[in-house]
């Protein structure tokens, strides 16, 4: 696996976010401030432009810095840190095991920065299970394709499992108990971004 795979992942993630922009915004309208789809769509458009400009640097690190700089909401710095940490951990070429370790390092960075744990009803509820699914697939000797399919499934399940939770971090936490009964927008977007790994692997 190499930097071209990372670029393909980011491209697939950008398309997925653009396609589901309205759904992400609707989820955020229910328990936040109705900007999650717009925040991410704009952020990933900036990522595409930054990558198309063809500058130096690992694509994930370029994307991470771009999201941190260009997205105002909570999700920009958090996704930016995820991708920047992954880019730092990955060289020009890497194995699936290397990718799994980088993914976990990125998720740990999100948790550190957001001071959140799984169960707080955030993107971590999708990202954490996804990172563990890739690591588990590596231990089972799975091919990247199967590993990414398992990660995508784990992320989707994790996102859906946020529905009954009461938010303890981010804007949704201001609602207290009233945040229960809605899927967390960041967990939903994480499921899209992790799902884009499967698309990227097919290219
Ligand atoms: P904002 O809340 O600033 O408008 P977004 O709407 O773009 O930002 O993103 C909201 C998402 O960010 C939430 O659904 C949640 O998944 C995630 N989030 C917010 N705060 C945290 C945090 N402290 N740790 C992890 N994720 C968080
Ligand atoms: Mg918002
Ligand atoms: Mg906002």
Shape: globular
**Biggest β-sheet description:** none
Count of helix runs: 9
Oligomer: single chain
Strand content: under 5%
- Low-confidence runs: none
- Rg result: 16 Å
On the 0 to 100 scale, the average pLDDT is 96
The total number of structural domains is 1
Tell me the name of the CATH homologous superfamily: DhaL domain
Distance N terminus to C terminus?
12 Å
Number of strands: 0
Q: Spell out which ligands are present.
A: adenosine-5'-diphosphate, magnesium ion
What structural class results from the helix and strand content?
A: mainly alpha
Estimate percent helicity. 55-70%
Describe the structure.
One of its GO terms (biological process) is glycerol catabolic process. Residues 4-199 form the DhaL domain. It is an enzyme of class 2 (transferase). GO terms for molecular function: glycerone kinase activity. One of its GO terms (cellular component) is cytosol. With 203 residues, this protein is mainly α. It has one domain: Serine Threonine Protein Phosphatase 5, Tetratricopeptide repeat. The protein is 69% helix and 0% strand. The protein has nine helices and no strands. It has helices spanning 3-19, 21-31, 36-52, 59-70, 75-89, 96-114, 124-139, 144-160, 185-201. α5 (75-89) packs antiparallel against α6. The termini are close together. The structure holds adenosine-5'-diphosphate and magnesium ion (2 copies). The site of one magnesium ion (MG) has 7 residues, from loops.
């Amino acid at each position: 696996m190499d930097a071209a795979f990372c670029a393909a992942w980011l491209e697939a993630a950008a398309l997925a976010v653009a396609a589901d922009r309205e759904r992400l915004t609707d989820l955020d309208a229910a328990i936040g401030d109705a900007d999650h789809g717009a925040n991410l769509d704009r952020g990933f458009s900036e990522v595409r432009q930054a990558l198309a400009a063809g500058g130096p640097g690992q694509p994930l690190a370029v994307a991470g810095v771009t999201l941190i700089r260009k997205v105002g909401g909570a999700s920009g710095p958090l996704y930016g840190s995820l991708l920047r940490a992954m880019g730092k951990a990955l060289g020009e070429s890497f194995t699936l095991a290397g990718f799994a370790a980088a993914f976990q390092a990125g998720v740990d960075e999100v948790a550190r920065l957001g001071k959140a744990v799984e169960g707080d009803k955030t993107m971590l509820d999708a990202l954490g299970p996804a990172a563990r699914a890739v690591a588990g697939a590596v231990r089972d000797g799975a091919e990247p394709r199967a590993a990414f399919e398992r990660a995508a499934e784990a992320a989707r399940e994790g996102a859906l499992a946020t529905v009954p939770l009461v938010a303890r971090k981010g804007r949704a936490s201001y609602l207290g108990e009233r945040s229960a009964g809605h899927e967390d927008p960041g967990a939903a977007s994480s499921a899209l971004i992790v799902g884009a790994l499967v698309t990227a692997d097919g290219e």
